[in-house]
Structure formats: structure tokens, C-alpha cells
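This is your field. Have a critical look at the following sequence-structure pair:

***
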Amino acid sequence: MKSWYLPTKLQSYSFIASMPIIDVLTNYIMFDDDLFRNINIWLVSFPIIYVLGALSWYGHVLIGNSIRSRYPLLHQTKLRILILALCIIPFMSFTVCVIFLIYDTLHILDYNLSLSDLKMGLLVGFSVNAIFESLYEADFTLERYKQSLLEKQYLQQLIASQEFDALKKQVNPHFLFNCFNTLSSLISIDRVQASEFLDELSKVYRYLLRNNEESLSTVENEVRFIESYAQLLKTRHGTAIELNIDIDPGYATYLIPSLSLQLLVENAVKHNVLDKGQPLVIDIFSTAGNRLIVNNNLQRRKDDVASNGVGIANIKSKYSLLGQDGFQVMEDAMNFTVVLPLIWNHGSNVVDFTANGLQKIHRS
């Protein structure tokens, strides 16, 4: 509560709506049926009770809001209500007694205090405070609950954003490390080819750096990049690798996590034998239902291949953080297949982890 000494809108409106009624009830308790016969009660007593009631109401506001400001958390609700009761009830009793004593001491409109009037005044005061303090507390608790949900949602989004950024940062070192290994082996075999490879690498890596700043990339951009990446691979492996791409042009503007195709192609190259007589064939094609398929024939290496677990786990984690279902990995004796769900590019509804928090994905 930013300014606990200021009444909330609910507190102000409730006072404006209820005080005339409380004023009439209080005057009726003190003057009985004279309330309807004596005009002086309306001209003199009604304003006095209204002013005293306003002072009493503001005192209740200060007490209630200061307690809520000191104990604002949801798990402090029971403690807050207990402290409110221990403070509000005595204060209410005191202010009611003061009002009646003022009238009795000053003989306002010849009023004389009676015990029955005081009891009735305390009953009205207790009832009114019970109703309105319950209303204020319910409003405060509801607002805190909404705020708690927003804070929790923001925290989840922040964590997801940080995790996604961490996944993106895994890609560059992973990719660069493998390229340097390839370049190192090429230097000792064919310096001309190594030079060509390095030239291709510089072109691809510039694109990689630029594209990896984004969380999502269009299918068109990803395909364009993977075609460049394939040239890198062919510089090294020649006809030992084949890449076939057949994607419906209608999916060009759809989105997938950045560099997903590069990771899958790299994964296929890493774990399969590359032989000119038995080439590794990688097919990338679209299917109905907004799916992109990456398939390669299986010809597993006999020797163990070191893996740092980035590849497929990275892509799966990205889809999970994006809240997208449908990512699948399938394997049989002949093929290894990965299904990538395509995300409809709907402008501002696309998730952007690099801006201010997470935005909502529009699912197709």
C-alpha cells in the first residue's frame, strides 16, 4: 500500500454511501421519535454527528491501512485480521462513547446519556465496522492475490527467458568448436580446401551471430542458412553427404526456434558414417498440420562419439519454454526423424524473449 494514510476508493465511497444512514440511526438512538418532529435535530445534530463520524472513519482508515501496510502478505492474512480486530474494536468503542459523552456533557439539544443508548450505539458501531472492515479486508486480500499471481507469472517468464537465453548461448560455442575441429583436420590434408572452408565459415558464422540474437526465425531464413551450412559440409565431405529440401512455400513465414535445422543437420553428421559410396542423406520437408520433418538414413558410427548434450535436447527445451507441443524424435532401424512444429507468425503475438519479458504465442 503506497500511501497508507490515504483512504482507498472503496473506503471513500463506502463512507459517502453509509454515513447519512449511520447519522440517522445515531440520532434516532439519542432522540427517538423526536427525530421526525424536531427540525433542530436535522439542522444541528445531523451535521455534528456527520463531522464526528468522519473523524472516527478516518481514524479507522489510518489504523486499518497502517496494519495492512505492515502485514501485506497473503500468508499474514490471519495475523492481520487478528490485529485489526484487537485495534479496531477498542477504537470503535472509544469513539462511540466519546460521541455520546459529548452530547451528554454539552447537553446538545438537551440530550441525557442513558446506558441503553450507549449499548445500542456500540451495537450499531460494531455492526457497521464488522461489515465494512470485512469488505475492506476482502478487497485488500483480492488485490494482493491478483498481484501475487502477476508476480508469480512474471517470475516464471523471467526464468523462462533466462533459460532460453542460456540455450541460445550454447549454440555458438558448440558450432564453432566443431567447425574448428574440422578446419584443423583439413589444414593437414588440403590447405586450399581449408582456405575455402574458412571463407565459407566466415560467411556462415556472420549469419549465425546475427540470427542467434533472435529466439525464433522464419522457415525461409532457416532454410537459407542451412543451404549455406550445407556448402560448408560439402567442402569437407564432398558427395558423402546429400541434403534435400522440399518445403511448401506457404510455410516460408512460419517460425521455428533459431538454428534448429543447423543443430539437427550437425547432429546427423556427428553420429553417422559419411561415405561417398553410401552417402548420408538428410531430407527436410514440410507436411500437413504445420510440421517440418528432418529425416536422415541411419548408418551409425561404430566408435563412440563424444557429445555434450546440446543438439536435440536444446531444441526440445526451446519448444518446452515456448509452450509449444508436438516436438517429436522417432527412430527405427533405417531412419532417424525429428518433427518440428511450425509456429504461426502472427506479428505481435509471437514470443519474444529478447524484449521486455515474454509475450503470448498465437498457436495455429
In short: The mean pLDDT is 83.
